[in-house]
N-acetylneuraminate (7)9-O-acetyltransferase (Grantiella picta), 756 residues
Amino acid sequence: FKGGDTCEYLLSSGRFLGEKVWQPHSCMMHKYKNSEAKNCLIDKHVVFIGDSRIRQLFYSFIKLINPQVKEEGIKHGNIPFEDKSASIKVDFLWYPEVNGSMRQRIKTWTEGSVAKPHIIVVGAATWSIKIHNGSNEALAQYKINITSIAPLLEKLAISSDVYWVLQDPVYEDMLSESRKMITNEKIDAYNEAAVRILNSSSRNSKAKVKVFSVSKLIAQETIMKSADGLHLPESSRDTNAMILMNVYCNKIMKPIDGSCCQPQPPLTLIQKIAFCFFILSIIGYLIISLIHRNNYRKNKSCTDLESGEEKKPAISTPNVSTLEMLLHCFCKLGLIMTYFYLCDRADLFMKENKFYTHSSFFIPIVYILVLGVFYTENTKETKVLNREQTDEWKGWMQLVILIYHISGASTFLPVYMHIRVLVAAYLFQTGYGHFSYFWIKGDFGVYRVCQVLFRLNFLVVVLCIVMDRPYQFYYFVPLVTVWFMIIYATLAVWPQIVQKKANGNCLWHFGLLLKLIFLLTCIYFLSYSQGAFEKIFSFWPLSKCFELNGNVYEWWFRWKLDRYVVFHGMLFAFIYLALQKSQMISEGKGDPLFSSRVSNVLLFISIVSFLTYSIWASSCKNKTECNELHPSVSVVQILAFIFIRNIPGYVRSVYSSFFAWFGKISLELFICQYHIWLAADTKGILVLIPGYPMFNVLVSTFIFVCVAHEISQITNDLAQIVVPKDNSTLLKRLLCIAGFFSGLHFFSAMQDQSRH
């Protein structure tokens, strides 16, 4: 709304989310770790000049580099700090008044022979008010002194980062008698003088002294917690130090969740080619549409003036050609990708940090569950895990995961552990669904494989190009893709064992079980052999797909986290289909799955198992330890849910059409949230309407859901064109796709070379 200078917003405006989390206006602030702070400030010299308040800021700043530092320096003297491992020097210089001494010190840095500090933080006023009893003469002298210092600071600002820290308000009721003359009225007068004088003579934007005024806003909220009414509580000064670190380091370190002070990334070669392609698609579609419209007008029926009857045209309206449909899809996709880019790569829209509260997660959960119950309908079939039921399952899980992401609930371990089960349930359905298809249909043709791979990966490949992100960044799609190929390989490799063959000879069932045991053995081996796993996925071209930040560790971690659940899904499908074939279960409308006694016992065990897992997950204290157990125990709650949902016939016979609708576009919702609902690659929240959080969520959610639905339609339409049933045509398309990826790899190599 006011331009793209997020640095200015970071230094001057913001609000608290809760009690301790500071949210700058319009952008996101990164929380720097010690290692990151050292990497940013390596070989740098930082100087803090001022009074005891600046000394507080100095200590908070150096604790970001070394948390072990204790505040033991001389109170009214200079304090040096050095980190020899990173060659970082940070000095505090005691100059409590803006006077000739401070001016002389600053002047020495403007002389050519002296090395200039890289960062200079200056601020003082309360001592002048105290020593001179708040007199007007002292304020007049302060203005004269700061006027003489201002040109020197502006000269330093050409090559260094110079910050003038405005004076924080005080809590007058807590001030000691010797400080009673320090009033907020006086502080405001001194601040006003500093802001008016600084940069008044500078016309060069590079020579501007940055006014650090955000500290005032932070102090207004927290000064009541001060120990003496003058000095800020520790949490507030730590926030100021973190802001200072973000202002200087974000442009150097470029953290994903630190959008403040980060310049807009330049367009890559691949992005430029992609945008040109989409523009040509839009132009091509418009030309074809105009041609068809003109042809339609020429052939339009007209009225016979004599009989008053309408004459039919000799030529009927032509059907939509493949080319027109293709261009129409790419036209829509181009407009949608432009929106993606503007939301998460350009500086057009604001971004904010997430902030978790129990109400921000649980209230929306209750709301959508109530909505889901209102949209209850009868299912077309009453089989276990029928299509409507699995769509419903995917839908409500996806909505819960979306709320989990936007509310920042990953910081609350019990919620995190339950969400891990939902992700595992998606993979369980992958194992169940694909195994069932191959087992029943026996269709191992290339067409089926290409259809599934295209539908899974199309959107992600486009986003990798447009948003300049690696394939592994959208980790869930690589995960599902690899597991699909594993399922396919397990069943397609000789001997191909399918239901039709197994029905003729029961021994084939044991053959399939041997295949599943071999698969489980391979999974177990790879999960405990990181080296072997990394070797497999470090080979080209797999490395291009599965590396993130130069290694495949992230991919190994993601794969390992749910390593058994796809196998569990396959095994469940095998057992269920065997029971169904032998008519040991009843799937009639309204009928319980088993006999009444067995159904009641299984239902009781399922409810107890479901609640037991929830109690265990809610009592988790250590995320690492719980993640270690999760792959083995997540199936307990998944199976418990399936039994609770399917054993009673009346429950199995109904479904929520509300959840099922979302389930049909669950993959698109999961991927699209990265850039057009969340922001900064899921680390923050997109702000289309600043100042109105609830209204903003409603608007951004509406657009997000519509876009996901549209992309689902585009993917389905393109799948019919790109992956035809005719084998010879499909082979040609596959050669074209291979050429496309070869070109993409070539341009990617050119990009990497130019970056280096």
Residues 301-318 have pLDDT under 50 and may be disordered. The longest strand covers residues 88-94.
